[in-house]
Amino acid sequence: MKRLVTVLLGTIWLAGCGSSGPAVEELDRVPREVEEAIETEHSLQMIDNGTASYLVFRTYLSVKPEFETRGSTLIIDLKEAPPKSDQIKTHVYKVETDWKLDTIETRINGEPAPFAVITSI
After folding, report:
1. Which of 90, 86, 18, 88 has the alpha carbon at shortest distance from 54?
2. pTM above 0.85, yes or no
3. What pLDDT does residue 15 have?
4. Is there a domain that residue 9 lies in?
5. Which parts of the chain fold into alpha helices (H)?
């Protein structure tokens, strides 16, 4: 019994030490404060509210995002693909990182793409 408790506590401790890495998800429902901060004249924008960052990408094409980490950098590559829409669509991604990641690098179709606007709300 003592051995079982020791193994269980060790497993819980190791699970707590592991980093889950960055969490990135496309949002169907955008928080109102973020929606109000979106500047529609820019195609690529970052909005930070203190607890999470929101990457905003506006395009006529469908988007397939790819995410990877290299060292302390989170790389977000937004891959555009057909079909082309008649109206521009706003894609919003919620990005949550741990303290080990201090840089977010964005790319569009593999090419570096700086943010047009970075907003703190």
Report:
1. 90
2. no
3. 40
4. no
5. 2-17, 32-37
pLDDT digits (tens, 9 = 90+) for 41-82: 999 999 999 888 999 999 999 999 999 989 989 899 999 998
Please check whether residue 65 lies inside any domain of the structure: yes
Q: What is the pLDDT of residue 119?
A: 94
Is position 13 within any domain?
no
Is 101 a domain residue? yes
Closest CA to 77 of 51, 48, 55: 55
- Label the pairing between strands 73-81 and 103-108: parallel
| Count of the separate structural domains present in the chain | 1
- Residues 40 and 35: their CA atoms lie apart, in Å, by 10
Residue 36 belongs to domain spanning:
21-120
